[in-house]
Amino acid sequence: MIGVSAAELISRLVQAKAHLDRARELIRAAGSELHQARALIQAALEGTADQSTAAMVDRSSQQLGGAGVAVGQSAGKVDEILTRVRGLGGLGN
């Protein structure tokens, strides 16, 4: 990113953080929907031998939770970088 001003760098970091925060919200909402779907699937399959669909939804829900954690960690890293960049003398806010 040679030739990028400090103000532009900060602006890009703030924008990246906003995107990460939005992604985290969407992942949480999707996780909630998956949780509801899992309950419906389990109720529909109750008493049957085929539990593979419920297991698949369960795995997807767990993977989505992991993605949410990763996005949250990325947002935290961007916050750390912003704090450091803003702390450098003469860069402004």
From TrEMBL:
Superkingdom to which the source organism belongs: Bacteria
A Pfam family recorded for this sequence: DUF6244
UniProt keyword list: Coiled coil
Coiled coil: 6-40
Protein name: Uncharacterized protein
